[in-house]
Amino acid sequence: MSASSPWSLDRSTRALLWKWGLVLLVPVLVYTFLWQGDSVVNAAFLGLANPNNSTYAVATPGNMVQALIFSALFYLLVTALSGYLLAVDSGRHSFAPVWVDVVLYAVVPILLIALTNDLVIGIALSAVAWGAYFLVRAIARRRFNRFPPAVAPADPPAPIANAELRRRAIFGSVSFGVVLALIWIVVDIVFYVSGVFPSLLLLTILLPVRTVLLVVGSYFMGHFAARVAQNFTVEAYARRNKRREAKGLKALRPQRAQLTPNDNPLRSSGARVIFMAALLAFVLLYPALDSFLFSYGTGGRLAGYGDAGYYVILALGLNIVVGFAGLLDLGYVAFFAIGAYAWAIVGSSQFGQLFNIFLSNSVASGLFWPMLLGAALLAAFFGVVLGLPTLRLRGDYLAIVTLGFGEIVPIVALNLRQITNGANGLVGVHSPGFFGLAWNVTTPVPYYYLILALIGFTIFAAIRLRDSRLGRAWVAIREDEIAAASSGINLRNTKLLAFGAGAFFSGFAGAYHGAKLGVISPDVFSYGDSIIFLAMVVIGGLGSIPGVIVGALAVYSLYVLILGQLDTMAAVPHTFMYNFHTTIIHIIPGFTFGNIRNLTFGVLLILIMIFRPEGLIPSARRKRELHENLDEQEPDVLGSLDVTFADPAFEAEVRVE
Amino acid sequence: MSTSEIKSPVSEAASVETPLLELRDVTKRFGGLAAVQDVSLRIMPGEIISIIGPNGAGKTTVFNLITGIYRVTTGEILLGGQTLAGLSPDRIVRRGITRTFQNIRLFNNMTVLENVLVGYHTRLRATVLGALFRPPHVRREEEEAREKALKLLGFFGPELVARQDEYVLNLSYAEKRRVEIARALAAQPKLLLLDEPTAGMNEAETLDAVKYVRRLRDELGVTILLIEHKLAVTMGISDRIAVLDYGKKIAEDLPEVIRRDERVIAAYLGRPTSVDEEQVSAE
User: Fold this and answer.
1) CA within 20 to 30 Å of A651's CA: A163, A212, A502, B3, which one?
2) A547 domain residue, yes or no
3) Does B212 touch chain A (CB under 8 A)?
4) B170 min Cα distance to partner chain A (Å)
5) What is the pTM assigned to this prediction?
6) Which helix (H) or strand (E) holds B225?
7) Is A378 within a domain?
8) Chain B residues close to A480, C-beta within 8 Å
């Protein structure tokens, strides 16, 4: 590297390059060579090059193209991230916390997914690993009585010129691209020489193409990274504000934490843009990628992710009620059941028997789309109706009444035989149809995209509601009902709205579940489910949308996939679980893992609540509540789960009407 | 900083003849105990009225009755000639009465700005669909609310504007009081009820509080009813003072008259009977 212009670098920039280059290279290399990164590219390329070779029959040509597109996007986005980080890092923070972040949130999940060969189980185990890390850290902090210094120094970071920003971004991207390309070439040659490599084709065509793409692409990604970084400078805000002023809008205020240069660039807004782009590319192209990442069993896995997906929707919906508005709801399964029955009645032969209108299969399947909204609205309606009697209650009392609803709705479904067909349930519930195409169990891909779209809408709605007048009112009620009422918030309407909004999303989940399962009966919905939903919200982090999503995935796979299937695993001879099980049976005759499923799950919950009470990914608010006011003299109201009661006479007099 | 935009237009339009707030023989009983008994009070637009009295005299109960947190047992409360009977606290806010609390009730885990924005709740119109799809008018009203909220915080000086994104938990006691008043002002009230606005403040902060209470009336045109323990404060800022003792109004007059009123002095310094009772109960 010569000292002449664009590449002449001062010492600090070179230090940053080392820092971020190493930090990003480790997870990328782990993904590429320890897991399936290079196999995805190679297999997809070879499959396209030899369309008649049965070795590559696991994937269709379409999937191969998608896999290649994903790989290109992924690696280019990583180079962009490298450029971005180099451009915006203020360089004031040391390696250690960044390493912990990257190892904890990138390397560990990739390794666990690769080891367990399942995406959701890998994420769940990662969540357990995170929990263990938090536990160790909490103990260490208590033992050594040491707290890390505050993150943000008082003085704002020195501004950086746009040209310098761009130069650093491009430099960071291209260097990372070049290093990655070189390492990949070396590994490929080693593989080829050692004979692991299947084809000379790869070496002669793929390798040069890949190298050129990485190097040239990384240059353009450097420009992209500079663009992203420049969006978060003081000048960019000034420019944007000028435009807003012309439109008569109020000026935006940049948060110091968002500005370039940034003290914690991995968590800055710009890095989030790149993370989100990569995540979006992954979830959208996942059905095509699956067969490359995990070889066989794509259909079953995708179907399983659909189930995990409706748990995510339920957790996000419940989060509105419990996390935002602080209303402890132990009967959320009721609205899930109502949503499921709404579609099951319309989408099965029951509809014809009830109303004497007989629809052709394709029409009935097409009805799914309007009924998706219908089921959600019906669930929301019942959310409001069941919310009405609870308005004067709070805390424990509210929880007990909602608990009742969770019991009542399945019992009503059991006994309302004319409509719900009683204990036999409704069978032959139609799958959704699309332009005359009916879906069925053997086609999990449409379901995958359906649940993805529903989750996307739910996340969008939850964020919009949270950041609105209504979201503020919910949090205000959670914090202090009397102050909220005295600020002009109508307690009745606002609480009912929370119940309704929460129930609305469970209607989506219910309709989806009914359509996918094809059978709905009262025993599908039990009180235990409500508790599982609540556990998802609390473990993920009350009120935190990303937290609740991770919580839902983690709890779903821990409880349903892992703990629920230990017995099945133990039935396979000569495995670790088999030997473990036989050893225990010698000591405790008749032992099964099913017996201790709830016990194990309960112990896990207790451990998380002791050492990470704010959840895995807490909302900023809740983290403060539980940690930063420990030395304040008066305890603060902790929301629905820990209501402090003021003077009873005073509270009793607060009227809702 | 110009504060003319946040001036409440209603208070100017109100007639001088009808009182802004009128309490007619208001009584509140908790079981057998009459916390407030036959209290009558008239507050004209633009006045600053203080309620004083010993601990347990029923001052805060009067506030809770006016703001709808308690229901009146007998009697009537009228705002601008219209009864407030049966209205919920939020309805009363919409009618134009807001308040602060004796033991500050801010939303501790919301930021300074968010707290004031909650105060704007009644002035914003976004529905669920509006919040979801954020059409231009919702966007505009949100931004306007933010702008006005900052202006309100600016009324108390530049410090709170600078700390707008901090959680109120981290503010000093005096700053919390100011945020609470800003939140109450956000709903653009005609009448502002301040429950001990200088409680827990040192001398300098008290002096500052007295100044801004007066400015609230003079610059924003808000009528103010306050409860205050520090006699020096009440004497300094009130147009009239009402004195409560054992739930009854024992006097109401100009500050200089109240200062010399024997019943008031007795209520504050204690009467032999009540002292005896305390001693008996202590034993």
Assistant:
1) A502
2) no
3) no
4) 9
5) 0.86
6) strand B223-227
7) yes
8) 105-107
